[in-house]
């Protein structure tokens, strides 16, 4: 697997370049124009020990949707490219992360089969529509685009919820920890972790 990969995506709505090292030290430089997303991707890199550089320009005068989704697409493509044939990885990862009163569990399988299951806690005791301009809906859109393009199965369960900032932060931290475990090398096997012989 390459030490680092660079993926670019340019459309009529966005211009994005991501450089990713999946076996890094958590170094990060993220500039998407969406301050809250920058924060989430920075902590994702830090807690996943991914070296991550994101440069994105988008039509933020319209709204943040295109930039949010296209950054997720590009990041997913970067992980897929970096993992190559997926040989020698543990493939599965799970992490449960608290953020004060919020609690989120993420389980994932780098399976080659894109799928997202996103489950919210039954009720929120505060307004869940906005965290510094970033909503839970935007977070779910990001996860869907990321899972589709990283070609993995992703389950995210919000178990306890109150403060929206804390909820979304726990989502990204738990995903980082689950990804860290899934891409970790399996010392007893250098083969593709599937009876099919490929992922």
How would you describe this structure to a colleague?
- 42% of the residues are buried.
- By secondary structure, this protein is of the alpha/beta class.
- The chain has 4 helices and 8 strands.
- The protein has one domain: Imidazole glycerol phosphate dehydratase, domain 1 (Ribosomal Protein S5, domain 2, 2-Layer Sandwich), CATH 3.30.230.
- The strands form 2 sheets. Strands 1-2-4-3 form a 4-stranded mixed beta sheet, covered by helices on one side. A 4-stranded mixed beta sheet has the order 5-6-8-7, with helices on one face.
Structure described in brief:
The chain is of the alpha/beta class and 199 residues long. It is built from four helices and eight strands.
Fold blueprint:
Layout: E1 5-10, E2 14-21, E3 28-31, H1 35-48, E4 51-58, H2 65-83, E5 92-99, E6 102-109, E7 115-119, H3 136-150, E8 153-160, H4 164-183
Parallel strand pairs: 3-4, 7-8
Antiparallel strand pairs: 1-2, 2-4, 5-6, 6-8
Following the backbone from N to C, one meets helices and strands in this order, namely EEEHEHEEEHEH
The count of β-strands is 8
**CATH class descriptor name:** Alpha Beta
Q: N-to-C terminal Cα separation, in Å?
A: 15 Å
Q: Largest beta sheet: what is the strand line-up?
A: 1-2-4-3
For the sheet with most strands, the description reads:
4 strands, mixed
**Poorly predicted residue ranges:** none
List keywords for this structure.
199 residues; alpha/beta; Ribosomal Protein S5, domain 2; four-stranded mixed beta sheet
């Amino acid at each position: 697997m390459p030490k680092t990969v660079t993926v670019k995506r340019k459309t009529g709505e966005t211009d994005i370049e991501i450089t990713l090292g999946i076996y890094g030290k958590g170094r990060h430089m993220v500039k998407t124009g969406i301050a809250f997303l920058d924060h989430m991707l920075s902590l994702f890199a830090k807690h996943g020990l991914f070296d991550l550089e994101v440069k994105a320009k988008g039509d933020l005068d319209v709204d943040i949707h295109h930039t949010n989704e296209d950054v997720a697409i590009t990041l997913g493509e970067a992980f897929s490219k970096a993992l190559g044939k997926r040989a020698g990885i543990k493939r599965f990862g799970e992490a449960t992360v608290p953020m004060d009163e919020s609690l989120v569990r993420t389980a994932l399988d780098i399976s080659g089969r894109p799928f997202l299951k996103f489950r919210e806690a039954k009720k929120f005791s505060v307004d869940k529509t906005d965290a510094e301009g970033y909503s839970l809906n935007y977070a779910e859109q990001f996860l869907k685009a990321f899972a589709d393009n990283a070609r993995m199965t992703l389950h995210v369960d919000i178990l306890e919820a109150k403060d929206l900032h804390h909820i979304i932060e726990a989502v990204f931290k738990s995903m980082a920890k689950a990804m860290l475990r899934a891409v970790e090398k399996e010392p007893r096997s250098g083969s593709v972790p599937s009876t099919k012989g490929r992922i």
